[in-house]
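Hi R.,

Here's the chain you asked about this morning:
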Amino acid sequence: VDRFIDVREYSDREIAELCRNLEIDIAVDLTGLTQASRLGIFAFRAAPVQVSYLGYPGTTGADYMDYVMADRVLIPEPSRRYYTEKVVYLPDSYQVNDALTKVADKVFSRGELGLPQSTPNTGFVFCGFNGSFKLTPDVFESWMRILKRVDGSVLWLLESNPVAVINLRKEAKSRGIDAERLIFAPRMPRGEHLARHRAADLFLDTLPYNAHTTASDALAAGLPVLTRKGETFAARVAASLLENLGMPEMITSTQADYEDLAIELATNKERLSAIRNKLELAHHRSPLFKAAQLTKNLEKAYTRMYAAYLSGKAPDHIFLEN
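And the predicted structure, written out as tokens:
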């Protein structure tokens, strides 16, 4: 980038006009229908090619967005009809991950994190660092059933806010689970947060809104992720990450399978150890953490989009290969 323009005080129309005056070829929206979004810029046509990417896991529903970046796991062919955008299928995972992400060197003891010591029959730590808004009653019920079937296990959650802590412990107690088996992790600097993942045994994903960056954080730190794949973009992101790591065995499709596998991994140390070893090897071999490779694929995609525009063709689905 050789030029940066601060447009925070500009209206949507002014930004769109500025982009057109600068002859921007491709405009990429990174927020979609999220807080502080500026989709109005795209409604005024900031560029001849407009793309939705990364920040919003789904369709904008807007006829002025030409493309959405995805991969073959996120948007299977039958789901394309629900998107106003044409789908650009990247060859690997759509998600950007920095291979240079620094996990702090600090080695946390379980004691300083408030976690129980691991023994042959107790102390298994299930981790769920998703935001509390993803913890639906169905998800929580499922987790409580898992805790009931794994003696001495605990559930390690992110401390989102004091009210959530009180309410979740109350709900656990109402389901016959000791409230102290829910342990809450305070926020800390990113490098240290990644490092403390190593104190957990298994990351439990949520549905219908999967862990996204939260899942890749866990995987980057070496913590296996167990997910349940749903129907929507937001419900398939963890599956996309795991497929790209070559770990489809950690993807389930039903609640019963999800719970059974969580319990199997918590009670079969050999199987869990094999999964952790596989993840360690996959971290170095998989394209998931190779930012340079993803960059090349994005550039291929932009070239294809713009070539179609120059030739007068309407946007259509794009399938890329490595």
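The first helix runs from residue 12 to 21.

Let me know if you need anything else.
M.
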